[in-house]
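Incident log, structure service

09:12 report received: a user says their structure output differs between two submissions of the same chain.
09:20 pulled the input from the user's history:
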Amino acid sequence: MTKPAKKRIGRPPGRTMPFKPVVSARVPQAHYDEITAAARASGRTMAEEVFWRVRKSFEDEKAQADARAILAKANETAAQVVKQNLQAEMRKAGYTQVRGINGAAWFEPGVDSIAWIFDSLPQDLLDELLKRAGRAALKAEREEERKVRLRRQEGSWEQAARRAADEEERS
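09:34 re-ran on a clean worker, output below:
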């Protein structure tokens, strides 16, 4: 009589499972019950259900980020269109736009914008601006004169060098 073969314990030989890291977490009983019910309803194991829900949350986050980017771009475009339309309507109504360092100002029809700007400036500030402009103009003029003098000197130096070279050749 032959002895019955002992039943082997463990995984069958020859089969290798791909390595999958294990993640475990403690959850409140209410969440555990929800996961169990969802796994039964979907026909997945609890591990598959948890993995599916985690994967879905990452996909949803990416979709929300994409949607926020699209919405931001749409808001930017809409703001530009509204601004352009408003400016076109103001021009039609006779308003004048004056651009400055810190932005632009719109003046009602009939208002002399340049006179309004200068009239609104304090007199001492206007005087200071005029002095600075005068100094800058004088400085630019002096610099230009200096450049002209240097060009003339270079020309005379070149002529002197040519004369010296000619004299050396003759001697």
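09:41 both user submissions now match this output. Likely a transient worker issue. Closing.
09:42 reviewer note: The helical segments are 29-42, 46-92, 113-120, 123-170. The chain is about 70% helix and 5% strand.
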